[in-house]
Amino acid sequence: MNIFLSPLAERQLEQLLGFLEFKWSRKTRDGFLDKIKKSFDQISIQPKSCKKSNIHENLYECVVTKQTSFYYRILMNEIEIISVKDNRRDPKKIEEELKHWR
After folding, report:
1. CATH code linked to domain 2-101
2. 68-74 and 78-86 as β-strands: parallel, antiparallel, unpaired?
3. Percentage of residues of the chain with pLDDT beyond 70
4. Considering the entire predicted model, what is its pTM?
5. What residue ranges of the chain have pLDDT lower than 70?
6. Which of 16, 30, 66, 67 is the most buried (most CB within 10 A)?
Protein backbone atom coordinates (compact mmCIF):
# COMPACT_ATOMS: atom_id res chain seq x y z
CA MET A 1 0.00 0.00 0.00
CA ASN A 2 1.06 3.56 -0.65
CA ILE A 3 1.90 5.64 2.44
CA PHE A 4 1.62 9.40 2.79
CA LEU A 5 2.04 11.85 5.66
CA SER A 6 -0.59 14.35 6.74
CA PRO A 7 0.64 17.96 6.91
CA LEU A 8 0.74 17.60 10.72
CA ALA A 9 2.82 14.40 10.60
CA GLU A 10 5.16 15.89 8.01
CA ARG A 11 5.77 18.95 10.19
CA GLN A 12 6.26 16.82 13.32
CA LEU A 13 8.71 14.50 11.56
CA GLU A 14 10.74 17.41 10.18
CA GLN A 15 10.91 18.97 13.66
CA LEU A 16 11.95 15.67 15.23
CA LEU A 17 14.68 15.04 12.65
CA GLY A 18 15.98 18.58 13.11
CA PHE A 19 16.02 18.14 16.88
CA LEU A 20 17.88 14.82 16.67
CA GLU A 21 20.55 16.30 14.43
CA PHE A 22 20.91 19.47 16.53
CA LYS A 23 20.88 17.78 19.94
CA TRP A 24 22.75 14.58 19.05
CA SER A 25 24.18 14.13 15.54
CA ARG A 26 23.43 13.52 11.88
CA LYS A 27 24.21 9.83 12.48
CA THR A 28 21.52 9.68 15.20
CA ARG A 29 19.05 11.42 12.89
CA ASP A 30 19.83 9.03 10.04
CA GLY A 31 19.51 6.02 12.36
CA PHE A 32 16.06 7.15 13.44
CA LEU A 33 15.09 7.80 9.82
CA ASP A 34 16.06 4.21 8.96
CA LYS A 35 13.90 2.91 11.82
CA ILE A 36 10.83 4.91 10.84
CA LYS A 37 11.23 3.89 7.17
CA LYS A 38 11.31 0.23 8.27
CA SER A 39 8.10 0.82 10.23
CA PHE A 40 6.52 2.43 7.14
CA ASP A 41 7.60 -0.59 5.06
CA GLN A 42 6.10 -2.95 7.66
CA ILE A 43 2.69 -1.30 7.67
CA SER A 44 2.64 -0.96 3.88
CA ILE A 45 2.87 -4.77 3.68
CA GLN A 46 0.81 -5.58 6.79
CA PRO A 47 -1.37 -2.54 7.58
CA LYS A 48 -2.95 -4.08 10.66
CA SER A 49 0.31 -5.31 12.20
CA CYS A 50 0.37 -2.53 14.81
CA LYS A 51 -1.99 -2.16 17.73
CA LYS A 52 -5.29 -0.33 17.54
CA SER A 53 -5.12 3.10 19.10
CA ASN A 54 -6.77 3.80 22.45
CA ILE A 55 -7.69 7.25 21.13
CA HIS A 56 -9.89 6.19 18.23
CA GLU A 57 -11.00 2.85 16.84
CA ASN A 58 -10.01 3.78 13.25
CA LEU A 59 -6.43 4.68 14.14
CA TYR A 60 -3.43 2.43 14.70
CA GLU A 61 -0.33 3.19 16.75
CA CYS A 62 3.14 2.07 15.67
CA VAL A 63 6.02 2.27 18.15
CA VAL A 64 9.24 3.21 16.35
CA THR A 65 11.47 3.64 19.41
CA LYS A 66 10.85 3.83 23.14
CA GLN A 67 10.50 7.60 22.74
CA THR A 68 8.60 7.84 19.44
CA SER A 69 5.42 6.44 17.87
CA PHE A 70 3.16 7.40 15.03
CA TYR A 71 -0.59 7.14 14.46
CA TYR A 72 -2.02 6.11 11.13
CA ARG A 73 -5.25 5.16 9.45
CA ILE A 74 -5.96 2.73 6.66
CA LEU A 75 -7.83 4.17 3.71
CA MET A 76 -9.03 2.34 0.58
CA ASN A 77 -5.67 1.83 -1.15
CA GLU A 78 -3.30 3.81 1.01
CA ILE A 79 -2.19 4.55 4.54
CA GLU A 80 -2.16 8.04 6.02
CA ILE A 81 0.33 8.80 8.77
CA ILE A 82 -1.67 11.16 10.98
CA SER A 83 0.81 12.16 13.68
CA VAL A 84 4.35 11.46 14.88
CA LYS A 85 4.52 11.74 18.66
CA ASP A 86 6.90 11.82 21.57
CA ASN A 87 5.77 9.01 23.88
CA ARG A 88 6.74 11.09 26.90
CA ARG A 89 4.11 13.75 26.13
CA ASP A 90 0.92 14.04 28.13
CA PRO A 91 -1.60 11.57 26.60
CA LYS A 92 -4.38 14.15 26.98
CA LYS A 93 -2.49 16.56 24.71
CA ILE A 94 -2.03 13.84 22.12
CA GLU A 95 -5.71 12.95 22.29
CA GLU A 96 -6.64 16.62 21.84
CA GLU A 97 -4.33 16.88 18.85
CA LEU A 98 -5.94 13.87 17.19
CA LYS A 99 -9.58 14.55 18.04
CA HIS A 100 -10.45 15.96 14.62
CA TRP A 101 -9.40 12.67 12.97
CA ARG A 102 -12.35 10.90 14.57
Report:
1. 3.30.2310.20
2. antiparallel
3. 97
4. 0.90
5. 100-102
6. 16
